[in-house]
Amino acid sequence: MTIRVVVVDDQAVVRAGFRVVLGSEPDIEVVGEAADGEEAVAVARRTRPDVVLMDVRMPRVDGIAATARLAAPGVADPVAVLVVTTFDLDEYVFAALRAGASGFVLKDVEPDELVAAVRVVAAGDGLVAPGVTRRLIAEFARTSAPRPTGPLPDLTEREREAWLLVARGLSNTEIAAALVLSPSTVKTHVGNLLAKLGCRDRVQAVVLAYERGVVRPGSGR
């Protein structure tokens, strides 16, 4: 199955670089480009890609607003968005996650890491680059106050344990080791968890865990 990608960046040279890297892979096809958020939304709606690689700072409509229009909770037929960022723009990353982004890569990402990130997001797994993700989660947790908005769905004990570990940035393999379960069993628990929470992917589950106070910074839970 070919992964269809739209590349969005206001710099033509960056778009060209991403196109070369992604287009060289046999299972990835770049089906469109855009230089700003307004154009990104139009191109994505026209081409219906599996993944939109989205820059943040752009003219007219920025990447956060464009992400919300393509992937926010409640959007009909949402598109997976992979945000391109740098660590000095962390506040934009948090806003993008709340807007519905499925993950992120750094602006200076290595080619193989970019390809891996696109594949992960296309597969619906959400979080990418676990070591980097955990740093962002820690900062997100530090700056996010719980925002209760009603009762949470009933979760089994295993689903709740899986949610806590997902929120700490652990992969399914790491969760399996922590809970002494098989990776396939963990995948089932995580899938059930996302369905009950109404989350499209793991990123949304992480954001929800911190916003609802299920996990708190420094608590070890």
From TrEMBL:
<dbReference type="Pfam" id="PF00196">
    <property type="entry name" value="GerE"/>
</dbReference>
<dbReference type="InterPro" id="IPR039420">
    <property type="entry name" value="WalR-like"/>
</dbReference>
<dbReference type="InterPro" id="IPR058245">
    <property type="entry name" value="NreC/VraR/RcsB-like_REC"/>
</dbReference>
<keyword id="KW-0805">Transcription regulation</keyword>
<keyword id="KW-0238">DNA-binding</keyword>
<feature type="modified residue" description="4-aspartylphosphate">
    <location>
        <position position="55"/>
    </location>
</feature>
<keyword id="KW-0597">Phosphoprotein</keyword>
<protein>
    <submittedName>
        <fullName>Response regulator transcription factor</fullName>
    </submittedName>
</protein>
<dbReference type="InterPro" id="IPR011006">
    <property type="entry name" value="CheY-like_superfamily"/>
</dbReference>
<dbReference type="InterPro" id="IPR000792">
    <property type="entry name" value="Tscrpt_reg_LuxR_C"/>
</dbReference>
<dbReference type="GO" id="GO:0006355">
    <property type="term" value="P:regulation of DNA-templated transcription"/>
</dbReference>
<dbReference type="GO" id="GO:0000160">
    <property type="term" value="P:phosphorelay signal transduction system"/>
</dbReference>
<dbReference type="InterPro" id="IPR001789">
    <property type="entry name" value="Sig_transdc_resp-reg_receiver"/>
</dbReference>
<dbReference type="Pfam" id="PF00072">
    <property type="entry name" value="Response_reg"/>
</dbReference>
<dbReference type="GO" id="GO:0003677">
    <property type="term" value="F:DNA binding"/>
</dbReference>
<feature type="domain" description="HTH luxR-type">
    <location>
        <begin position="148"/>
        <end position="213"/>
    </location>
</feature>
<feature type="domain" description="Response regulatory">
    <location>
        <begin position="4"/>
        <end position="122"/>
    </location>
</feature>
<dbReference type="InterPro" id="IPR016032">
    <property type="entry name" value="Sig_transdc_resp-reg_C-effctor"/>
</dbReference>
<keyword id="KW-0804">Transcription</keyword>
